[in-house]
Amino acid sequence: xxxGTLVQLIENFRKLPGVGExxxxxxxxxxxxxxxxxxxxxxxxxxxxKEKLKYCPVCGNLTDTEICTICSDPxxxxxxxFVVQSAKDVLAxxxxxxxxxxxxxxxxxxSAAKGIMPENLNIDTLIERAKDAxxxxxxxxxxxxxxxxxxxxxxxxxxQYPDLLITRIARGMPSGGLLDYxxxxxxxxxxxxxxxxx
Amino acid sequence: xxxGTLVQLIENFRKLPGVGExxxxxxxxxxxxxxxxxxxxxxxxxxxxKEKLKYCPVCGNLTDTEICTICSDPxxxxxxxFVVQSAKDVLAxxxxxxxxxxxxxxxxxxSAAKGIMPENLNIDTLIERAKDAxxxxxxxxxxxxxxxxxxxxxxxxxxQYPDLLITRIARGMPSGGLLDYxxxxxxxxxxxxxxxxx
Lengths: 198, 198
Prior knowledge:
alpha/beta; 42% helix; globular
């Protein structure tokens, strides 16, 4: 019912995560109301991401330079490697400004359900990098797939480097959390990993 | 913190209606995972909409042909004109398959709050078209701005063509509606516009 050009744009918006028919329609119609410069810039930005954005060969983070800004920063401690699932997680940790080491982005998690195997992930370079590391912090999500991946990496790294310090991010109550709303796993961790007050 | 190319795409996604920082980020990252053909097609679709899509000079609906498909359809009754706010409304009515006349898209509503005056809307051509019409159905939304616009158009058309039939879409209870949840205006209309059962 809509003209073909508009239908095509709607179809494209529908490929974005969580975007259904109605939302795609609203986005496409809003593009009709944008001025031409903005739309051309939008189209250019899309193309640029595909053409210029690459995975950093060192850590697997997204970058538009040869080596990503974190890996090429001489002030970052290269011996402390923070392992995460995706580029989004790097940003989340960087926002806390609490970590001065480097990252390793797996670009996925091991998942039997989704058919993602260790060989589909950016693991080989991690094993390579771990050789010179002091500590590997496993910071995959605390979900089923995240835990599986962390356990897998722990085993793999321990076999290869028996003396390497491998840690997992702390589990327990989130800030502002209410005990009576927390699930059993969270409470169990909060109890078993309790710390002495100084 | 993200590479510049990605930040630019995030900024562009943020221009879409209802898209905040987090959603724009999610969309942009999903584009990184798309294959190149899809992304180039997406960019092309954006440009096409701006380059090829125009307002139909007859009715104001969006079209990528000279005259829109509805206006150029010889089977549609050109003497019955259905006046709506936007192209989205045309689609909604077409989906009902209950109307075989033609449309007139105002591309907005008179709104004191948003500073939209009658001269900003596609009204002149409506007055022109109304000359040969049998009926003008005012189908702007039943919101404050929609009612204002309908009243304005009714007055303007009546002055010009005293014999023209001008109607307003029915107001009352929506299908599946519950009386105790309906607002007073809806109930007032449902009562005053009640119909005899046959």
